[in-house]
Design a protein that fits this description.
Number of strands: 4
Strand content: 25-35%
Structural class: alpha+beta
Shape: globular
Number of helices: 2
Helix content: 25-40%
Largest sheet: 2 strands, antiparallel
Order of helices and strands: EEEEHH
Radius of gyration: 10 Å
């Protein structure tokens, strides 16, 4: 098992060694369970980072 990250959109665990999708925002890499979550995040990152 590799290192895990939490998808900021759906809060699923994502393997950072082989993520389905990633995105950079303000110098930080975010990991996503699927391209759909990445797309939602990129449309409005602040919505998902407020929590």
């Amino acid at each position: 098992m590799g290192k895990k990250a939490i998808d900021p959109v759906c809060e699923m665990e994502v393997d950072v060694d082989d993520p389905p999708a990633t995105s950079e925002h303000e110098g930080k890499t975010y990991y996503f369970c699927a391209p759909g979550c990445k797309k939602r995040f990129e449309e409005n990152p602040e919505k998902f980072l407020e929590n």
